[in-house]
User: Fold this.
Amino acid sequence: MKRKILICDDDEGILEMLEMVLDAEDYDVTTEQNSLKMFDRMAQVQPDMLILDLWMPVLSGDQITAKVRSTPAYQHLPILIISASRDGAEIAKNAGASAYLAKPFDIGDFMDAVEKLDTQSAA
Amino acid sequence: MENTFKADQLPRDSDNSISLTLIKAALDSSVSGIIITDNQLPDNPIIYCNSSFEKMTGYKRNDIIGHNCRFLQADDRQQPERDKIREAVKKGQNISVEIRNYRKDGELFWNELYVSPIKSPDGNITHFVGVQHDVTRRKKAEEDLKHEKQLREQKITERTNELNASREYLESIVQTVRESLLVLDPGLKVISANQHFLNTFKVSLSETEDKSLYDLGNGQWNIPKLKELLEKILPTNNPVLDFEVEHNFPHIGRKLMLLNAHRIELEGEYKDRILLAIEDITERRAIEQRKDDFLSVASHELKTPLTTIKGYIQIMERLLPPESSEKLKDIIKKTARHADKLNNLIQELLEVSRIQTGNITLVKEQFDLDEMVTEMVDSLQAASSNHRIHLSGRTGIKYRGDESQLSQVVSNLLSNAIKYSPDSTDIDVHLAVVGDYVKLSVKDYGLGISPADQKKIFERFYRSSETQKHFPGMGIGLYICEQIIKNHGGSLWVDSEYGKGSTFNFTLPLN
Assistant:
């Protein structure tokens, strides 16, 4: 069965690109541009992993992460935060993300990070 | 002349008075020049002079007997003393004067002259006796002293004028400068404040002058650290530089002030004073912050599409069928390289802004310095097939510092060495421990840097005009490098000869 990944980024370009990459690697990808809709999306998709941008209107990636982590069912859900913000790594870590990648990143590094999280959660 | 008479054998004249010969001998042995003039003869001529007079004036008896004394003044006739003598002679009085006389050879001598009349029993003045001393030396000393004194007085006057002038000069500068200035005495009491100070802090002169600096306003300057620095200025001549005070000031509210204080170096009246300059940088700091914020946002926004571009390029590379033309493969490779370049530029812009506002923080961790340098050399070597980078020396040190920032410096120095030596192949990198420091040198055999440019290349956005024509770039790499090295307590410098190549060196303290 395909592993499900839900991506949230306010930039449509990145969503499309990442979807293409992950599709090619045989993941079941859902994208969401509106951070406010993320919790509905999660309930609907039941993802195995989240990929979140940090700076987004209304709800930021770290806020979503913190909220997800406070839900018992999602305490161990792999969350990868991607951001072009310089302090991103620290914010992501403090919020409880599983991994962090600075934008712009190599697709190779991105896939490594995704696969590593996937293996860890599957194990 | 020797007197050989014995007292009881004194030659005497028939009337038992002392003999004239004896008197003449006595007069000749006197050190005073003595002349006698006959007032009963026309023009009061000299009828006698002793040998001291001859010595003093250089005239012989033959030259002067029968002459009036005035020849002694030669052409120097306008002396007021002459009138005094004439007056005294006319009235038959004693007189003592100092008068300029001239020897036969024309040389000036000062004559202290004592003239006394000799009267006959019937009261007529028959003769005058002149007793003279050459007081030239004494007179010269007196004149010198007087001259010296005049000169000194003149100098004092000039100096006073100068001081007044410089006081006015300084005053006008102090009042004109658009910065708040206080002049303090050694006890840090305010001697004067300029108008700008009064306007800035909305205070009056009477609230400020003659008050201790620490008592101004609501004690805003009474800060232990500042106190310590200010009190060291006079004894050590170490200025206070860029001391920031953020405070809720009376009348004007919370402000950020920048303080600079120096000892005033003028001599005389103005030494032992401190000039304190206070600049309100609240607005400037806010603008810097806004600029920093703007650059953060801008770079974030620029990086977002760049992430997508980079991603698609890499997808393209993967999707590209192996049989595709070399040209197409090359185009994709170049596109990837330029996307990376764009990313670096954005990164640099952001970092310059952060460094400028002091927002850059060091993440210090121990790392293997030799290994870091080796990695950077390898990665730059891989990217430039035209150059051979030779790494020599090692430190064997686990250095505690920000590895990512320091590797950025090494990378930047290596890229510059490659970039600015297009026609040579060798680049020498050397690592060493030098005393309490580790030292890295990157030597190229390329264009070199002119002495004028050597001073400027570490400035932000500086590009030498020569470089500008042939090599693209924003001119912030070395600025960032220097800031990073400085933040680690080290220094970065260049040795270069134009046309022969450059060596960039940096040192980092081990502790």
Chain A touches chain B through 21 residues (CB under 8 Å). The domain at 4-122 of chain A is CATH 3.40.50.2300 (Rossmann fold).
